[in-house]
Amino acid sequence: MSFILGMDTGGTYTDGVIVNSSERKIVCKAKALTTKEDLTIGIKNCIDNLDFDKMEDISLVSLSTTLATNAIVEGRGASVGLIYMGTELDEDVPAEIAVKVKGRFDIMGRLQEDPDPKEVREALSKMKGRVDALAVSGYASVRNPKHEKEIKRIADEVLGVPVVCAHQLTSALGFYHRTITAVLNGRLIPIIDGLLKSTKKVLHEKNIYAAIMIVKGDGTLMTEAMAKERPIDTILSGPAASVIGGLALTGKRDGLVLDMGGTTTDIANVSEGSVKIKKEGARVGGWRTRVKAVEISTFGLGGDSRIYLDKKGNVQIGPQKVWPLCVIGMEYPQLVHELQSFKRVGELKTYSQQEADCFMYVGGQLAKDAPAHEKKILEKLQGGPHSLTYLARAIGEDPETIDLTPLVESGILARISVTPTDILHVQGKYNQWNRDLSQAGVEILARRKEMPVGKFVKMVENAIHTKLAMTCIQSAADFEGEDFTFTESPEAMFLIEAALRKDRGVLLSPRFHLSKPIVAIGAPACAWTYDAGKLLNAKVIVPQDADVANAYGAAVGKVTATVELLISLDEDQYILNTPWERFIYGSKDEAMFYAIHEGRKYIEHQLMDAGCNTWSIEEKPSDIMVETKENEPKVYMGTKMVITGAGSAF
Predict the structure, then answer these.
(1) Residue 346: is its pLDDT beyond 50?
(2) Do you find a cis peptide bond into 319, omega within 30 degrees of 0?
(3) DSSP 375-395
(4) What are phi and psi of 323, to 5 degrees?
């Protein structure tokens, strides 16, 4: 009997499951905190927590992750140089150095201008030692990749760093977004390589030598080798795995899959067992890519979202992610004394931080001209975290004058505060961490609100339910193709709030009815989603093992490979454009024959390289017809051929 190890490395937790490969049933599961400073620690802790003694029988390891997505959002990764040609880039690209050189094909792939090797070498020589990777992008390279390949050959000689060609990542037109995709791919190479190295190090320590697969953003699997070359394909890997896992755990074919994690709530619309793929490309961190990924609506609401009171005294939840008080309190229980000791000091009038906030040093250095109080605070935090009021008193400052938000945003400090996870600890619904510190923090906020703790907790609980219901309403509009945000319309919010209030008015009492069930997954899902569903008159399904649906989705995912080929009519010739070469044929039938033959062969190699022992392949041709004159027959301009293979690696 063989088994699959599915793992998800998220921003807060690393989850793991052992799945029986023949029955696809979870044998055991485990969680551990993700250790960003050294991923091997969190991965090792997760595997150690699995109650499984047949590690040598694991035949496949399948991973999902949010590391790539988070790296793009946070602007982290390798320094990338860019060589581009064919046209100007009118907008910014995420490259350290960008140089335009000679070389151009027209949209049909016909030569307009050859590159100048001397110019290319000079540009590359100036980048040497300044970049960790190179992206090469040419206008119409998907129609003829010759120039990109030539520049890659020269770059391999001159730079000795990974080189990414845009045509290898997507066959879609759109020079600017294809260029962004190539640059981001270069930036992510060390991120995903680090995950793979950390995982393999731990696996070898555990005598696990199975093949490694990674979930792509469209929910399918790719090989370790492909992930190293195309790490950009792992953006939205974690949410995609969660959708696959949620469907597999429930057997449902229709519903809103809601994944509530530590940082975000991700929602996908499932119809007839499938999720819509954003073929135009996923948008991450403000950059539109050409990466195909599941259509997800993401909101800054999770178990680690900061709970605070705004200037009007209203409860706010997120979108900032913080460390829950209860989690940090396990290692630093002295914080309980700090909050209890100083909570009776006069209330702060500032709202950037509050008495319940604590801070800890994460890493990095202050600027040389940093204020004196920041330097003193960093000294105090070297020995461990402290509350804001403790830090203010220790350095002789008024808490009103200390704003540590810039140090948090720069990554030097981390904020520790009240979160939904702390609310669950105060309620006694979840008791994994330090309840006393959660209680101390909540008491401070309740006192600031001038209400009993029990009443305050109930108010926060209702606010979380309402915000979670609001995410479903906004997602439903998103999935209907609407391009507006409800919170930007006072009129819309008046009606929505009227419908979501439990104490509805007499004159106006609107209702919501969600026509699909909510399939709720993620560790906090069970605690919050049922009551949110009641506000929407929706059925809520929380499957068994919902807390590890992402890791399970990684384990049971399918391997797929897709290639898009284009046959273009150019006078009396038929041009076959492939990701690897450009061919010319004398007839459409001949071009079609070779498109199918070469395309199937390409897909078969991809699936075999992925370790598949069985697969199926299908071709979908679609003619491109253009209307030239009104009331006249459309003119044939070419044929798009999409060849897709699906296989199983177990």
Answers:
(1) no
(2) yes
(3) HHHHHHHTTS-EEHHHHHHHT
(4) -85, 130
Element (H, E) at 553: helix 549-556
Q: At what angle do helices 420-427 and 525-535 cross, to 10 degrees?
A: 100
Please state, in angstroms and rounded to a whole number, the distance separating the CA atoms of residues 240 and 252. Answer: 16
Q: Residue written as tokens 């609107």?
A: 510
pLDDT tens, residue by residue, 104-157 = 998 878 889 999 999 999 999 999 999 999 999 999 898 889 999 999 999 999
Lookup: tokens for 650 = 């177990």
Give one DSSP letter per residue of 505-545, joined into a string.
-SS-------SS-EEEESTTHHHHHHHHHHHTT--EE--TT
The C-alpha atoms of residue 381 and residue 486 are separated, in whole angstroms, by 42
The tens digit of pLDDT for each residue in 361-373 reads: 988 888 777 888 8
Place of tokens 């394909």: 233
CA distances for 99 relative to 134, 170, 178, 271, 636, angstroms:
11, 22, 16, 45, 38
Contact call for residues 179 and 89 (beta carbons, < 8 A): yes
Alpha-helical segments (H) within 32-79 = 39-49, 67-74
Distance (Å) of CA 125 to CA 28, 119, 129, 159, 165: 53, 10, 9, 7, 18
pTM: 0.80
